[in-house]
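Q: What would this complex look like in 3D?
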Amino acid sequence: QITLKESGPTLVKPTQTLTLTCTFSGFSLTTSGVGVGWIRQPPGKALEWLALIYWDDDKRYSPSLKSRLTITKDTSKNQVVLTMTNMDPVDTATYYCAHRPIPFSPGNWFDSWGQGTLVTVSS
Amino acid sequence: DILLTQSPSFLSASVGDRVTITCRASQGIANYLAWYQQKPGKAPKLLIYTASTLQSGVPSRFSGSGSGTQFTLTISSLQPEDFATYFCQQLNGYLAFGGGTKVEIK
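A: Here is my prediction, written as structure tokens for the whole assembly.
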């Protein structure tokens, strides 16, 4: 059974850097084809993909946020970390991490999600 | 970047109704599309990937179709547990999500 859980601060101040950790179980990020992504959702709004890291350490970022994002993995701890710099109130959202399965055909979908963590940006 | 536009953004339906939700891509994406269901306060749940492949464990009343720029999610007979918000997602390059379609009880 795959599980993922996000952790990090619930409140950050504008201009600060947000660091979120995704701790997972039930799969290994050393397995060929596997990935972990981050997606966020402002209250009452749509989902927004942020970043994706693959088993081979290849990384993909949302073009609009690429300059502010860094995604890394620690396979020994089964963790993926997302940092987002220069936080702003518009970044207030629930942040999810999710498992990208070994694809039987090309594409990046997410079949297991964490419960999400609400991050509020306010002074 | 590819944009995904869902329609309608809101629909009201009754139990037993056949429901169709559309997702239109701003440029052709072959079959690189997934559908998710999200209930209030919960994480999204994968329903369909590569436009028409049903995720394991998802009821067969859900189906997906389309390719290129036009895709549909169909619920053949709406059940009480299906009242939720549905999102499409592009599966290649920039992993855009659609704006969502909220399905409410009529």
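A: To summarize the key features: Chain A touches chain B through 24 residues (CB under 8 Å). The longest strand of chain A covers residues 18-25.
Q: Very helpful, thank you.
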